[in-house]
Design a protein that fits this description.
There is one protein chain. The chain has eight helices and eleven strands. The chain has a single domain, classed as Metal-dependent hydrolases (TIM Barrel), CATH 3.20.20. The mean pLDDT is 97. By secondary structure, it is of the alpha/beta class. It binds zinc ion (2 copies).
Length: 273
């Protein structure tokens, strides 16, 4: 059995390092069975007046026309997706709904990057907040994101706040926020969404996000839908850490990985990895 990796970024995203053609070429070389790009739709950034260092944002028309053309002759199954950066703001949500309708991405990844008006990747987010406050504010935003009105499939990188947090012990743990996590996990299950296990954990103190404590709880609550994504922003990171992650998921009782495609969900048995 070969892996799928659906959450990747090319240079269509402001922070991507490799062209879409290069990403597809490398994905096939790495032996993946299917590949997806989820380029950044930063309507959260735009609404808050935030920018990338290079000042770029996604050219949506160019992305979809290029990606749809590549999809026809891709060296492996390729799905054209989108990562929507959630912001609880009426106009932003309406814009995402309109974009989902206009471009009909093959799948949508729902993400929380901004909280309290800032991207919680940056140190400014943590200023004047202790760990409990900065992490619980983020988790509350994640819970709100699950009620987004656009048709998303995957709940991305829960625990993102810990990726670049300034604490000596940055790890975000279920036991520290059991009620907030239970709220999130129950909503993911109730809404039938897929919980992403993201192997781009960076400084989070875990090999992947969320970690096994959260994933075990998700399973105990009845959660069965998980997928593994690398969130690669360059060709070298595609599918990084997948085998270790698959083994860990299997060890806590998950039996399949679930991926959303326009033809319906595809299940990959975990005991084959
Ligand atoms: Zn993200
Ligand atoms: Zn991403």
């Amino acid at each position: 059995m070969k892996f799928f990796d659906f959450h990747n970024h090319s240079t269509f995203s402001a922070d991507g390092a490799c062209s879409l053609e290069r990403m597809l070429f490398s994905a096939e070389k790495k032996g993946l069975a299917a590949f997806g790009t989820a380029e950044h739709f930063d309507y959260d950034y735009k609404a808050l007046g935030l920018t990338y260092e290079n000042g770029r944002f996604l050219d949506e028309d160019s992305y979809f026309s290029t990606a749809r053309a590549l999809q026809k002759n891709a060296p492996l199954r390729y799905f054209v997706g989108a990562e929507f950066g959630f912001l609880e703001e009426e106009k932003t949500l309406a814009n995402y709904c309109a974009t989902a309708k206009k471009y009909q991405p093959d799948f949508i990844v729902n993400s929380v990057h901004v909280c309290d008006g800032q991207d919680c990747w940056f140190s400014s987010y943590f200023e004047g907040k202790d760990k409990t406050t900065s992490y619980s504010n983020y988790l509350k935003a994640v819970r709100k994101s699950l009620d987004a009105p656009y048709p998303y499939h995957i709940v991305a990188h829960v625990g993102y706040v810990s990726r670049n947090a300034p604490y000596a012990d940055a790890k975000i743990r279920y036991q520290d926020f059991p009620d907030l996590y239970d709220d999130i996990l129950s909503a993911v299950i109730e809404k039938g969404k897929i919980l992403e296990v993201n192997t781009s954990a960076r400084g989070a103190g875990s090999a992947f996000l969320p970690d096994l404590d959260v994933l075990s709880r998700y399973r105990a609550l009845g959660g069965r839908k998980v997928c593994i994504s690398s969130d690669a922003h360059d060709e070298h990171r595609i599918a990084n850490g997948f085998e270790e992650c698959a083994k860990a998921l299997f060890s806590v009782g998950f039996s399949v990985l679930t991926y959303p495609t326009p033809e319906g969900e595809v299940l990959l048995p975990l005991d084959e990895f």
